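S1.2 Input.
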Amino acid sequence: MSWLESLTLTSPSGFWNPLLWLAFLVIFAVIGYIIYSRGNRSYKPNTEQVKPFISGNAVEDVEQIRVRAGDIYWGFMEALKGYYAVLMRMHTGDVRDYILWYLGIGAIILFILLGGV
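S1.3 Output.
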């Protein structure tokens, strides 16, 4: 058995070799660098190029156009408003409460599993 074979983990569904993955990582890094190096060289950070463009109108306040994480999930949160209202009432921020919930739910699951035997 060669040293390369000793690093290979084989299973019925395939194999895994860290050196092979490292080789792929290097190949993709080189490809990424080639793509990056062929980029537009006229880009200059900290100039007018980096300002947001909204149909030629100047944006006075960047906060007006910023998309917050809450905005991304607005539809989801609105559709499940009743569910989240219950969860927010239960949310205390105290780790001891979460541990108590964890132990309580674990005890219920254990009771169900042992009760089924």
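S1.4 Remarks. The first helix runs from residue 3 to 6.
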